[in-house]
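Section 5.1 Outputs to date
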Amino acid sequence: MVRLTADLILRSPQYFNAVRQRELDLRGNKIGVIENLGATEDQYASIDISDNEIVKLEGFPHLKRLTTLLANNNRIARINPNVGAALPNLETLVLTNNRLSNLVDLDSLAKLVNLQYLCLLDNVVTKKPNYRLYLIHKLPKLRLLDFKKVKLKEREEAGKLFATENGEPSKTPAPAKTFVPGEIPVDEQPEAVPMKVEEPSRKGPTPEQIIAIKSAIANSQTLEEVARLEKALKQGQLPSDLVLPGDDVAKKAGTNTDNGVPPSDQHVDEVTAMDEG
């Protein structure tokens, strides 16, 4: 196994590729670990590390100019989660014929926020259910996956299938509302207004009634009667058996106190008796 040293980097071919990118060619050197790429001084837009023995995609310094990484025909089974911070502008990644086997092994690719072209052919993971939709959901800017264009329909399907990804909890549906005939829905019921209970107005005795009560107290014959009248005076209540001035006149005007016959009827009887006489 060969180490990737600064000397190896300086001796490796450097040229402009077909898309006019400055490329560093590190193919076929039996490199096992990515290291010492700081010696490139971030001068390359493309690096080719294909046909080596690399096991893990890691060890990159901060390379803001790098937009294309070719790493096919290696033994890559893991991807470092910090790869996105080291390669912030990477747009093309080729990992054909490696050893990536599970969808979770691809989660670190989501850190490559500018990734548009990705190839994972000849990896076991491509046989997993929903492999393609999973990557489309993870990589919003992805345009080409395994040399096939990402379609709008696939984006919509991926969005529906993985709607609860990235820690977004699914919304629990609200319980269905049931309707009972004759029942007013809760949302439409008027708010209960507290009823105001009116206290009965208390009318105290008039000045004339007060004078009559005091007069009755003065003329009382027993202590019990005095106490009863004083209690009635304090409570503002008029005793039922108390006769007020003027009540006798009203009663005499209404009925005859001797025989209980109204005066009008009594006058008619007197006239009838005179006529018979």
